[in-house]
Design a protein that fits this description.
Elements (H helix, E strand, L loop, with lengths): L10 E6 L2 E10 L4 E5 L6 E5 L3 E2 L3 H4 L8 E3 L2 E3 L6 H11 L5 E8 L2 E8 L6 E2 H7 L3 E3 L9 H4 L2 H4 L9
Parallel strand pairs: 6-9
Antiparallel strand pairs: 1-2, 1-5, 2-3, 3-4, 7-11, 8-9, 9-10
Length: about 160
């Protein structure tokens, strides 16, 4: 891609380990690297500018597959999620299949309960976060402060059509 096209918000593709992925340039790091957002997976990664390519028109029109989500009925103890809460959440997710129970879809954010059903007793994430002192159960869905900063999909992925509460 020409340097003039390497700008935040540019939809393109990147080759990683012989596979091609749709990406959106999130920010330019330096002369060789950019941080990209994967709209079909929801993650950020730093890649080499030389790996970027223009995307064929037919793939530009496809909707993003990642959906902005928030854990239902919980909020951080003190305004922002602590490092302990984030680490506990990552530990709970840990490369296993989870069950997601949808509570509601509001303003382009899917609010859901997450449950690990891989053991004898189901483990609900919001209960574990509460029991470990990392979250308050609030009985309503409040997007985290700084949601757009922490979740680039909120910047780039728009909900399809109007959604009602």
């Amino acid at each position: 891609m020409p340097e003039s096209s390497v700008q935040p918000g540019q939809l393109c593709c990147v080759t990683v380990s012989k596979w091609w992925y749709r990406v959106i340039i999130h920010r330019v790091i330096n002369d060789q690297e950019v941080e990209v957002f994967y709209p079909d997976y929801g993650n950020l990664e730093i890649v080499q500018k030389s790996w970027l390519r223009f995307l064929k028109w037919c793939y530009l029109k496809l909707p993003a597959q990642a959906i902005p989500c928030s854990l239902a009925w919980v909020k951080p103890m003190e305004g922002r999620w602590s490092n302990a809460a984030t680490l506990l959440f990552k530990k709970l997710c840990g490369s296993k299949l989870l069950v997601g129970i949808v509570d509601e879809y509001v303003n382009g954010i899917l609010h859901l309960f997450l449950c690990d059903t891989s053991t004898e007793e189901d483990v609900y994430f919001h209960c574990v976060l509460r029991d470990e002192g990392c979250a308050d159960i609030c009985g309503e869905n409040i997007p985290s402060q700084g949601f757009e900063e922490l979740n680039p999909s909120a910047l780039y992925v728009q909900p399809s059509g109007k959604q009602e509460n």
